[in-house]
Write a structure and sequence with these properties.
- It holds the Pfam family Glucodextran_N.
- InterPro entries: 6-hairpin_glycosidase_sf (IPR008928), 6hp_glycosidase-like_sf (IPR012341), Gal_mutarotase_sf_dom (IPR011013), GH-type_carb-bd (IPR014718), GH15-like (IPR011613), Glucodextranase_N (IPR015220).
- One of its GO terms (molecular function) is hydrolase activity, hydrolyzing O-glycosyl compounds.
- This protein is of the alpha+beta class.
- The chain folds into 3 domains: 23-263, Distorted Sandwich (Beta-galactosidase, Chain A, domain 5); 271-694, Glycosyltransferase, CATH 1.50.10.10; 701-788, Immunoglobulin-like.
- It has 20 helices and 37 strands.
- The strands form 9 sheets. It has a 9-stranded antiparallel β-sheet with strand order 6-7-8-9-17-13-12-11-15. Strands 1, 2, 3, 4, 5, 10, 14 and 16 form an 8-stranded antiparallel β-sheet that branches. Strands 29, 31, 32, 35, 36 and 37 form a 6-stranded mixed β-sheet that branches.
- The longest helix is centred in the middle third of the chain and has 20 residues, at 436-455.
- It is elongated, with a radius of gyration of 29 Å.
- It starts with 22 loop residues before the first strand and ends with a strand.
């Protein structure tokens, strides 16, 4: 039973690794398409040919002397260091806790041949000890553990091990020291089961077909204590094998020096930026982390959210995407950080990528694969607004020509005007309605868009787009500010900005919102009893002053409901009643859980403190973010803010099991460094700030659309109808005693609008109207009403 096809097909249900990455890396050569991760002393997921496709689960050593048995990731204590500051190659030391041996690894990429290289030194403290070591690799090709096939083979007379699935082939080559080889099904016939049970390698299966597989190689160190392991991928077995063979023919130190030199050159290119010279602790690591998440040719410019799968050790093949997907919001945040740090090309590449992945109607998907294919189906309006903001920043910097992006700009602006201000989902991917963060980004994009469209010669459209921004801004309190709730009474304030407000609901009604990451029985919460940190965006983007009474009231509630003190410093939760996080016993999020503190929200709070002029507090929060990072300098999505649970690896003030590193969090850190140096948030929109904070421009107008069917309107105000087609509106303000027909006008031939000044209409208690659609030559077939106050 120890040869031929392995037994136990298809193996146990596959799981991914912990999301707690301590290092990520890639070559800066565009022809190299490998990206790797490390944690717990070993290589974790390796991505190829795109930054969104994981190909292995992990690769570690197994160690035994016939009596004891260790797997490297669990049986040793680990330390990790960057080769040089800001250069993502790593020296890892794994020490036997009983001091019998030590494993030293250097992990990097052969940029020329696109190969992951691990140089390993195995040191026995007593040379008389008869210690055996083995390589154990778990292929998870094409983002999945099942359906993999592994076999022992050779290429040009060299013994190697291979795996394949879905047209991708993997080769593992350990030259000079390879002994016995075996392929098995995980949980049954894999090398871990064999060696853990027998304290030696007894299986030599030649293949394991179509399942969750693992491959094992005996390492023979009779004459030396160091060896190299090479992993590569290709569209054929021969391609992958040729890559590892070519790499093995080179001196490993020369390969490393070449890899390092490309990063050194990149750092010099970016080091012209004053921030780098200031030596903020995580600035260089953040630049490397963000750059490592950028895609290569032929689909260059995309930036994924994280080279990790949140709570990956609880996740299987049913979660193909993890966080190695592109969220346009996270991507723009990262591209802006690259811009701040002097990587102009990276930021421009990101804009060009977004230009090419925009949907025909002007929006961007909630998230997507590197090839632009939608993953989740939601629409988040801030993700259509953010690319406009990035375009403005690059245009103002003189890095792009506006006319080259005019079509993208027009389509994005048209989509916001046609569908805003409401969003199908807020930035936390859950509820729809009016969201302060979403609206802040929309207004910023509209203000910038108005200026850019005017520059392109669309003067009338520019005025209307600015008018829409003014309408949005003038109605923020009406949509989102609630008074006299139980939450207000609890904190002694008269009112506060709620987390999100449902469409078509009056701001003072007792409506509810669903918390979708909580058990169904406790998922509904009164809107007026919710609060979120997103309100700080109203100050950050320049829409409200920091001392706005409603902001001050809301911050008091935020600190009472969402702030947690940890051993690393204060952190804030996203919103009250949040369920996105581990359960209280430390088990991973599985659709429900308990939300934890987010380091990036400490950064957002620091930006608010800068707006208040409280620079010392902002700097303290910067240091909190630095303490939140792990030993590899990776900033996590969430921090564990409960009591320590050592058996789960959860410690107060340290990273939880959520995504790490989170690119958005690293971008937030970079922006905070910039804000500390410049005394204001990077995102503050000076057009908006001048209009809404300094000049306090407010207009008495509202928008009605099929996405925003308002129910109430001041009688002496104006109303703008936003419509998809050419039409005319027939309306009355006195129960059809008088009526008016007003024809629509076109904006870019994509959006139609009708403006009505109610002072010119005879009105009583309500406005009633319907539409006649010219293209289809038909009436709407029903009337709509708006109460006049």
């Amino acid at each position: 039973m120890n040869s031929g096809e392995a037994f136990g097909k298809p193996g146990i249900p596959p799981k991914w690794t912990s999301s707690a990455k301590e290092g990520v890396g890639t070559s800066l050569r565009r022809c190299s398409r490998l990206h790797f991760t490390v944690s717990h002393g070993i290589v974790n997921e390796v991505y190829y040919p795109g930054v969104d496709i994981a190909q292995i689960r992990d690769h570690q050593l197994l160690i035994t002397d016939g009596k004891f048995f260790f797997e490297e990731r669990r049986g040793t204590s680990h330390s990790i260091q960057w080769i040089k500051s800001g250069i993502p190659a790593y020296r890892i030391v794994n020490d036997d806790k009983d001091l019998r041996f030590k494993v030293e690894k250097t992990v990097f990429i052969d940029s020329e041949n696109d190969v992951l290289v691990q140089h390993v030194v195995f040191i026995k403290n007593d040379q008389k000890d008869n210690i055996s070591i083995y390589s154990l690799l778990s292929p998870h090709l094409m983002n999945g553990g099942m359906g993999n096939t592994a076999w022992n083979g050779n290429y040009k007379g060299r013994r190697m091990q291979f795996a394949s699935k879905g047209g991708i082939f993997m080769a593992l080559f350990i030259p000079e020291v390879s002994g016995k080889m075996s392929c098995g099904f995980s949980g049954y016939s894999d090398g871990f089961q064999d060696i853990a049970n027998n304290k030696t390698m007894t299986y030599e299966f030649s293949s394991a077909t179509d399942g969750n597989v693992a491959i094992t190689t005996e390492i023979l160190l009779e004459k030396q204590n160091s060896f190299n392991m090479y992993i590569a991928f290709g569209t054929t077995m021969e391609e992958a094998a040729l890559k590892v063979l070519k790499s093995s023919n080179l001196n490993w130190e020369s390969i490393l020096n070449d890899y390092v030199q490309h990063w050194v050159t990149y750092k010099k290119y970016s080091a012209k930026n004053i921030l780098v010279k200031k030596k903020y602790d995580l600035l260089e690591p953040s630049l490397a982390v963000i750059r490592t998440h950028v895609s290569k040719e032929p689909l260059a410019g995309g930036i994924i959210a994280s080279l990790s799968i949140p709570w990956g050790n609880f996740k299987g093949d049913d979660d193909l995407g993890g966080y190695h997907l592109i969220w346009p919001r996270d991507m723009v945040e990262a591209a802006q950080a690259l811009l701040i740090l002097g990587d102009i090309d990276g930021s421009v590449d990101a804009l060009r990528y977004l230009q090419s992945t925009q949907e025909s109607d002007g929006h961007w998907p909630q998230n997507m694969w590197l090839n632009g294919k939608q993953y989740w189906g939601g629409i988040q309006m801030d993700e259509t607004a953010f690319p406009i903001v990035l375009l403005y920043n690059l245009w103002k910097g003189g890095y792009v020509k506006l006319e080259n992006f005019s079509d993208m700009l027009i389509r994005a602006l048209s989509f916001i005007v046609a569908n805003g201000p409401v969003t199908d989902q807020d930035r936390w991917e859950e509820d729809g309605g009016y969201s302060s963060f979403t609206i802040a980004v929309e207004i910023s994009a509209l203000c910038y868009g108005s200026e850019m469209i005017d520059q392109l010669g669309f003067h009338e459209e520019s005025n209307k787009i600015q008018l829409v921004a003014d309408i949005y801004n003038s109605n923020i309190e009406r949509w989102l500010y609630r008074e006299n709730s139980d939450l207000d009474s609890k904190y002694g304030v008269t009112g506060h900005f709620v987390r999100i407000s449902q469409v078509e609901e009056d701001i003072q009604s007792n409506d509810y919102i669903p918390i979708k990451n909580r058990p169904w029985s406790s998922s509904l919460v009164k809107t007026e009893e919710t609060v979120s940190t997103g309100v700080l965006s109203l100050v950050r983007f320049g829409l409200r002053p920091h001392d706005h009474e409603g902001i001050i009231n809301t911050v008091k509630i935020i600190d009472g409901e969402l702030k947690t003190e940890t051993k690393s410093g204060p952190v804030w939760h996203r919103y009250n009643h949040d369920g996105y996080g581990e359960h209280n016993d430390g088990t991973g999020f599985n659709g429900t859980g308990h939300g934890r503190g987010w380091p990036l929200l400490s950064g957002e709070r620091a930006h608010y403190e800068i707006s208040r002029g409280n620079m010392s507090e902002a700097i303290q929060l910067l240091h909190t973010m630095e303490r939140d990072a792990n030993v590899g300098g990776m900033i996590p999505e969430q921090i564990w803010d409960g009591d320590d649970i050592p058996e789960r690896g959860l410690y107060n003030g340290r990273p939880s099991g959520s995504a790490m590193p989170l690119v958005w969090a690293h971008a937030e850190y970079v922006k905070l460094c910039w804000a500390i140096e410049n005394g204001r948030p990077f995102e503050r929109n000076e057009i908006a700030y001048s209009r809404y904070v300094e000049r306090k421009i407010r207009i008495n107008e509202d928008i009605w659309s099929f996405k925003n069917k308002i129910k109430r309107l001041k009688s002496k105000s104006s109303i703008m109808f936003i419509l998809d087609e050419d039409c005319f509106v027939r309306l009355t303000g006195n129960n059809w005693k008088d009526m008016n027909d007003i024809h629509s006008k076109s904006m870019f031939s994509k959006v139609h609008y009708i403006e009505v000044d109610l002072t010119t209409i005879k009105t009583e208690t309500q406005l009633e109207f319907t539409f006649f659609w010219k293209k289809s030559n038909r009436w709407e077939g029903m009337n709509y009403t708006v109460e006049l106050l």
